[in-house]
Design a protein that fits this description.
By secondary structure, the chain is mostly helical. It has a 3-stranded antiparallel sheet with strand order 3-5-4. The protein contains 7 helices and 5 strands. A hairpin with a 2-residue loop joins strand 1 and strand 2.
């Protein structure tokens, strides 16, 4: 599944904020308490704690996590680049179809396409739902998407229509 790590980045930065309010030698709260406070899963909390440990900000021994160094600005993770706009995604999708002459009936691998276009899976799903209203793709009964048909003529027509709008 292609996902960005944006949720992890935000959680890690929140954890740094929590650590910055603590005194060196203090123990961090339990993982469940951190998960509740940060509004993320314990899995994300554990991953963030592992990074704190590898960055030598905490000492992790069993269930005890002790702050050994205050976080600095350079420890913060910058947000991931924002995903493509709908127009950019549309352009890349249609270009992909035309460049590779993707035939009608082709099954669309959403995870692969989201990686290829650099967008989160849910953004691609929403985009495909919009295309389904135009009759270009359809949702398969057991999940997934299928390309109904796309000709060069339709691409030109769609492009001209967008220019009019």
């Amino acid at each position: 599944m292609a996902r960005t790590d944006e949720r992890f980045r935000r959680a890690y930065n929140r954890l740094l904020d929590i650590c910055s309010t603590m005194v060196i030698g203090d123990e961090l709260p339990a993982e469940t308490a951190l998960a509740d406070k940060m509004e993320v899963s314990r899995t994300i909390v554990r991953t963030a704690l592992q990074k704190l440990d590898s960055d030598n900000l905490i000492r992790w021994e069993g269930r005890t996590k002790t702050l050994i160094r205050k976080p600095q600005a350079e420890h913060r993770l910058v947000p991931a680049e924002s995903s493509l706009s709908t127009e950019e995604l549309e352009h890349r999708f249609f270009e992909w179809i035309l460049r590779f002459d993707v035939p009608a009936g082709t099954s669309l691998n959403v995870a692969q396409l989201s990686r290829q276009f650099g967008v989160p899976v849910h953004n691609l799903q929403e985009f495909l739902a919009g295309l389904s209203r135009l009759g270009l793709v359809e949702r398969r009964p057991r999940g997934g998407w299928s390309l109904l048909g796309f000709t060069s003529e339709f691409a030109v027509e769609l492009s001209e229509f967008r220019m009019v709008l």
